[in-house]
Amino acid sequence: MEEKPVSLMKSSLTYGIYLGIVSILLSVVIYVLGYSFEKWVAYAAYPVIIAGVVLAQLSYRKTLGGEMTYGQAFGVGVMTVIFSSVLSSVYTYLLYAVIDPSLIDQLRLATEQQIVEQGKVPEEQLDAVVNMMTKFQKPAIMAVLGIFGGALIGLVISLITAIFTKKNPSDEVPA
């Protein structure tokens, strides 16, 4: 009896949950250490996401018998990050709405400080710009934007990683 390969959706969901849990744990550590609004934190997640996508793609390729097209690699990568983003966005919503609602005010102050430091906004327009930014700093909006942002990041990362993880049948070197 021949083994049936795992579906793309199941593989993506499994690795999306793994990646989401790792992302949430990383966020918790950053929150506990008090680095939530540091600039470098935004870049700390990229290596984790890249590793999660590559692992998902390699695992899926293994279930397919060692051969996987670029499209399959791309699909599993994007779906993995989308599932991870949904999980991370639920955590983000809970963090800002339930666990520590004071983070919204801290985020507003950090945003205002960053705008002032950049010096691109005239003093008389500062309040208007900060008010505009705070409209998007609500837990529900942040969660939705997190899903869309994650999908976009997953798209870009998967476009690149699929080049290296695909293995077409014609890629075999004749003996």
Automatic annotation (TrEMBL):
Q: Return the protein name.
A: DUF4199 domain-containing protein
**Top-level taxon of origin:** Bacteria
State the UniProt keywords alphabetically. Answer: Membrane, Transmembrane, Transmembrane helix
- Pfam families from the UniProt entry: DUF4199 (PF13858)
What is the source species?
A: Draconibacterium aestuarii
InterPro entries documented for this protein:
DUF4199 (IPR025250)
- Signal sequence span is none
* Membrane-spanning segments: 12-34, 40-60, 72-99, 140-164
